[in-house]
Amino acid sequence: MTSLTKPEVTGFFDEATNTVTFLVKDPASSACAIVDSVLDFDYSSGRTDTKSADAVIAYVQDKGLTVEWILETHVHADHLSAAPYIQQRIGGKIGIGDRITVVQNTFGKIFNEGTEFQRDGSQFDKLFQEGDRFTIGGLTGHVLHTPGHTPACLTYVVGDAAFVGDTLFMPDFGTARCDFPGGSAETLYASIQKILTLPDETRIFVGHDYKAPGRETYSWETTVAEQKACNVHVGGRSQEEFVAMREARDKTLAMPKLIIPSLQVNMRAGQMPPADKEGKTFLKVPVNGL
User: CA 239, CA 36: separation in Å to the nearest integer?
Assistant: First the structure.
């Protein structure tokens, strides 16, 4: 068994969107990274709030930590990112996968963004590719490109911890949907197999939890070994069986409640669309566009 560094991981659960934001700390220093932050958004009023992000910021400040990275596993469709707000308050570089350009091209057209919307990923500080390495203090992390849910999905592996975003959920809940533009069940299956080649003892931290039937508490930490043995969507299924199951299941799912604001904001690295000449900000609703 290979001895892997064990980063300190703290989860912050947002029940409104079932999202987990992770703080990943180097045990030998004050350096940390934040993965998949949340900006609260009330769709009915169009108002944002920073309660979820402020909880993470307060933790960082209370512990005297230094934020080196604010990482996104993908362009989320179910919550807005608080990355620029956190960056303004406590620093850190904002990173995402380099296939963000594919997502920006796709949704730039759907939301009729025009030529002023840059589709080169320049809104982010770092665009990661498969195999890239990064540091959090004395920790070295590396990047796996794990598309399928979206074209730009990444898994960040830091020591014995893997942050998989929406690619895998807890073993009793299964896997991510693949029916958004650019998604692919075949690709997701291959990405999951890549994650499952990590050492069995690798801790897997999932981006959401919905409490599978029969489970009373929210959970977001599992292992590669547990996923291999118990994942209700993957275990014992061939690629063909998985694709048939995943595509049939996706047809029964409603669109996420916050998909329209989330995509417009998150493809901009958490920034709102540019304000008009009166300083007002608007989000678009593409009728029959999704």
Answer: 29
Yes or no: say if 168 and 227 are a contact pair by the CB < 8 Å rule: yes
Query: What is the tens place of the pLDDT at every residue in 132-169?
Result: 999 999 999 999 999 999 999 999 999 999 999 999 99
3-state secondary structure labels for all residues of 242-282: HHHHHHHHHCCCCCCCCHHHHHHHHCCCCCCCCCCCCCCCC
Which tokens hold the place of 244? 């048939």
Ramachandran area for residue 286 (φ above 0: left; ψ -120 to 50: alpha; else beta): beta
Domain ranges, ordered by start, for the chain = 8-264
Class of the 8-264 domain? alpha beta
Cβ-based burial of 105 (10 A; exposed 0-12, middle 13-18, buried ≥19): middle
Which residues touch 236 (CB under 8 Å, ≥6 apart)?
none
> In terms of C-beta density within 10 A (0-12 exposed, 13-18 middle, 19 or more buried), how is residue 207 classed?
buried
Query: What does 69-116 look like in DSSP terms, one character per residue?
Result: EEE-SS--SSSB--HHHHHHHH--EEEEETTHHHHHHHHHHHTT--TT
Q: With 0.85 as the threshold, say if the pTM is over it.
A: yes
The residue type found at 228 is K
Residue 53 CA, distance from chain mean position = 15
Please report, for residues 110, 137, 157, 230, the alpha-carbon distance to residue 29 in angstroms, rounded to integers and kept in the order given: 44, 6, 18, 35
